[in-house]
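Memo to structure team: turn this sequence into structure tokens by end of day. - J.P.
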Amino acid sequence: MKRHKLIMGGITMMLTATSCSDYFLNLDPTDTQTEANYYKTAEQFEAAANSTYSFYGFKDVKEKVNGTDYTHTVYNIWDNGSDIITGLNDVVKGTLAASQTDTYWSLCYAKIRKCNVVIEKGAEYTGTEDIKASIATAKFFRAYQYFWLLQRFGGVPLILNTLSSDSEELYAKRSSRYEVVAQILSDLQDAITDLPDESDYSGKVTRQGAQAFKARVLLFEGTWEKYVQETTDGDGVSSGAGSAKPADYPSVTDMLTEAASLANQVITSNKYSLWKAEGTPYEGIAYNYLFNLEDENTNPMGFKKDANKEFILQICHDPVSNKIAKNITHSYGPTAATVLGGSIPLKWMLMVPCKTDGLPYFYSKDYKGFNKMTDIYDNRDYRLTSTVMIPGTTYYIMGTNGADKSTYANADYVTKFDFPDGCIPFYPEITSTGPTGFMNRKMTSERKDYSDEDEAYNYPVMRMAEVYLIYAEAKCELGNGTISDEDLNMSINELHKRGGSAPISNASIAQANANYAANTGKSGNLTMLDLIRNERAVELRNENARPSDLLRWGIAETELKHNTLGIVVKNPDGSDTEVVNFKYEVNGAEKVCWLPVAAASYGYETIDDGSLAYVVTPASQVNMTRKNYLYPIPLSQIQLNPALLQNPGY
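Reply from structure team:
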């Protein structure tokens, strides 16, 4: 069959760069080289492999396909389609319909092509220099792109070589999800074999990064096949990609076992550690600064980026040549009460462990109701108290009233409190439908004199905390809902220790349900698997894990079919909570926290303990069904290749 290799541009990247920011200055090749005079040296292969880096995070990622730009944006991935943000996307509403194009279909395949070129050229290489790591990098990112496609569409065409206009693959049917998974796992295993160990934390993909990512894939697919099974596959004849499996395809048990094993290998490699300020006055606030760290001017501890050994896979940014340029803080921070990520639902606030027993709010001895605005913040894990604005607490706000090391010297939230005059105490403002009253800080900046789009902190594609979570969940699934206290101590309890909350054990379950009965007057049915799943929502909020978690557990359509709730306005006895009548002054003007008009649209809901919370978004707007677990194949692709069958229900 006749084949024509498409042109692969030359690479202008600095190969000697070692810092995280320098390494990612320019990942896109120019058009000054062609395949005919390239791929002759290991240096050229390394540069070409660097051009395959294609993580999706804060910053826009763009590819031009047939004259059209397709762009990834962070607004697509901020926990959209989950129960821990406010607002509903088309998937959750059940209104998603097939369209002519899909950004990620075109974007991912454009990225895959770059990987295929490097891999093909590696197979043709006859030189004596070592190019294994470069080929392994390309295979890693091919796996990354196919995993993105798998989560979005299920089975897709497997394109493993560069194509010409008459290539047979252009008219092939979709590979099943199981065939795609097999290829992803194969590529990742090759990457594990040939990538170097972590050494300089520069942002380059390493053996441990490939191990961690393969563990993520195995946990995702193992639980998908356990809970969702073949319900989204279609028969491969009239719809969908079918359910064909390769002969040596791993079982669910095999996948979960390997996920736990790989997670353990990353843990015991001692290459990474949880970010914390243990033993310092800042232990209770340090967690928040993991997610906006740029230099010593961006945190009270004076830490620089090299203090972060938690990010295993990351997208690196710097304030000089590679800013995020996406208005992250403006969109999702203290000034963004009504935007998806800026306002946190009551559900997530209730999930976070309490300090005394490490259990969620209604299941804890630390439960104290909602009468005072600060009740829900008292004795809570640092993952809540450092990343959610506490009523009555003064904060820096990015810009004129922001911070640097000189202002931290006078006000550091812990030992000194001489804030600039422009910094004022935070109080919730729920005067219209939308704000929940719980304001996000995670992944937002408080840098002094920054304007919109100036942020330059790194995006965590995968971090050590997730590896602990993978290990715990895989072990609990393998134990049919049970896990040893030893395994809890080496996973979940490491996160609790960092968060300042008590460790959990198997004895915690009975205690949790007893506490729930005492706090609500109802029987509790919390399980260990519930607790571990809960930890993922707590730890990985804003990191786009929750939407796929709900899908792979097969509970999305039921878990999302609930009202999204905001702040509690009535106690169980019917009296108003503090927020209802609370007034304060800003620059001499009186302000209120609550106006009943906020609940005029959707009313209130009685929650577990008999208190009344206001409804931000009603369950009636949620019409998701099992078909919405996958996106529809873009119509233009089906028109070009009728062998591509649409996903069931579209």
